[in-house]
């Protein structure tokens, strides 16, 4: 994302990199005092969960997400007391409220709706382990994918999911379980907002359940949010079906795939089929000021991209759709992503043509989300 930031922000970043303070760490992307939103990113916990705090500070995050354990394993070592204490101390030092500003992401293995009783129990045990890790760290939110019905009845799968959420709430004290909406691939639960509403209806303690809306998943599931009108149409539907009080977080991603493609392919802001406008709208939406807004855009091995994108989101505040600099920046980012959009559009159109020629068959379940380079399939 070279040349992403306006000159004033680049100058600020350069100055902060050179700045030194005896006995304190200098961060690459300093936070600004007047940012009205909790813009953040999914950061690494390599070397210990407490490192997530400094990694978040390094990209200028006002909130952050992380994995509580390896997302590639069912069982991981417990968080040591010393590490938990260090995590809390660093949160206090850098001004993060663990109850409101941190949104851990659950393992992609977890499928609480699994019709196989043994696999369902295995997923539940891992789920509760995550929740207890949250509470050890004093974290108040926990985000997870609602799973897949696989080959079972969809309504029965929703009931299993809700049953396991109820059991998990009984076994923990305070962490809010945040259900993420999905892109609609295979038999995944949650691409239709009604799925989430149905699950919430079956949750007994509604103070302990919330929703995370992922912009890429929303678009991939067929909800157009690219313009101000469409954006507000979606949120009106969300309010009607689910209820605004349940919105607990946003995952901020552009989409490599076109509208309604049911493909969970995250893209850098402004590069994809969503375009920069929706992110300008989000960066000026008063209703989103108090919740974590977490980037999950592709960064490879370069987390500084998150720093660039957070600075972009700061820059988008108070800008209108006809702002000359915004129009220029939107065009630049769109041009940078044009080749990749064309490639994915062709794949989508080719697949649509093949599907149209085939006789109707029962859909097979797909794999859960694609954040990992080698993503596990839902059991």
Description:
There is one protein chain. This protein is α/β, with parallel strands linked by helices and 379 residues long. The protein has one domain: Divalent-metal-dependent TIM barrel enzymes (TIM Barrel), CATH 3.20.20. The protein has 12 helices and 9 strands. The protein has helices at residues 7-18, 51-58, 81-94, 117-136, 154-170, 193-202, 215-220, 228-241, 277-282, 304-316, 324-336, 338-357, and strands at residues 38-42, 63-65, 141-144, 176-180, 209-214, 247-252, 254-255, 266-267, 292-295. The strands form 2 sheets. The protein has a 7-stranded parallel β-sheet with strand order 2-1-9-6-5-4-3. Helix 2 packs parallel to helix 3 and helix 5 packs across helix 6 (193-202). Residues 55-313 form the Xylose isomerase-like TIM barrel domain.
What structural keywords apply?
alpha/beta, TIM Barrel, two-stranded antiparallel sheet, disordered N terminus, disordered C terminus, zinc
In brief:
This protein is of the alpha/beta class and 379 residues long. It is built from twelve helices and nine strands.
């Amino acid at each position: 994302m070279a040349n992403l930031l306006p000159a004033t922000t680049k100058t600020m970043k350069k100055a902060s990199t050179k700045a030194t303070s005896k006995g304190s760490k200098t961060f690459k992307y300093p936070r600004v005092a007047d940012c009205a939103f909790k813009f953040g990113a999914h950061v690494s916990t390599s070397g210990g969960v407490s490192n997530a705090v400094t990694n978040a500070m390094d990209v200028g995050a006002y909130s952050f997400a992380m994995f509580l354990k390896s997302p590639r394993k069912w069982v991981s070592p417990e968080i040591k007391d010393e590490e938990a204490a260090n995590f809390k101390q660093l949160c206090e030092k850098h001004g993060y409220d663990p109850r409101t500003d941190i949104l851990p992401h659950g393992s992609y293995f977890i499928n609480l709706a699994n019709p196989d009783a043994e696999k369902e129990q295995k997923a539940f045990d891992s789920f509760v382990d995550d929740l207890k890790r949250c509470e050890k760290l004093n974290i108040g939110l926990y985000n997870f994918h609602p799973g897949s019905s696989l080959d079972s009845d969809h309504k029965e799968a929703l009931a299993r999911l809700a049953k396991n959420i109820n059991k998990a709430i009984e076994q923990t004290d305070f962490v809010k379980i945040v259900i993420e909406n999905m892109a609609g691939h295979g038999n995944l639960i949650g691409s239709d907002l009604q799925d989430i509403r149905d699950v919430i209806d079956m949750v007994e303690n509604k103070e302990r359940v919330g929703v995370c809306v992922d912009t890429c998943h929303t678009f991939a599931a067929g909800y157009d949010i690219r313009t101000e009108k469409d954006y507000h149409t979606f949120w009106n539907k969300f309010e009607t079906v689910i209820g605004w009080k349940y919105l607990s977080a946003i995952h901020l991603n552009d989409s490599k795939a076109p509208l309604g493609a049911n493909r969970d392919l995250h893209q850098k802001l402004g590069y994809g089929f969503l375009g920069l406008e929706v992110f300008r709208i989000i960066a000026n939406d008063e209703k989103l000021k108090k919740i974590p807004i977490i980037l999950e855009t592709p960064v490879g091995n370069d987390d500084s991209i998150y720093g660039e994108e957070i600075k972009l989101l700061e820059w988008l505040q108070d800008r209108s759709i006809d702002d000359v600099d915004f129009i220029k920046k939107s065009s630049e980012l769109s041009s940078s992503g044009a080749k990749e959009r064309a490639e994915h559009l062709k794949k989508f159109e080719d697949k649509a043509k093949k599907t149209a020629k085939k006789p109707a068959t029962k859909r097979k379940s797909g794999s859960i989300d694609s954040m990992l380079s080698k993503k596990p399939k839902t059991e």
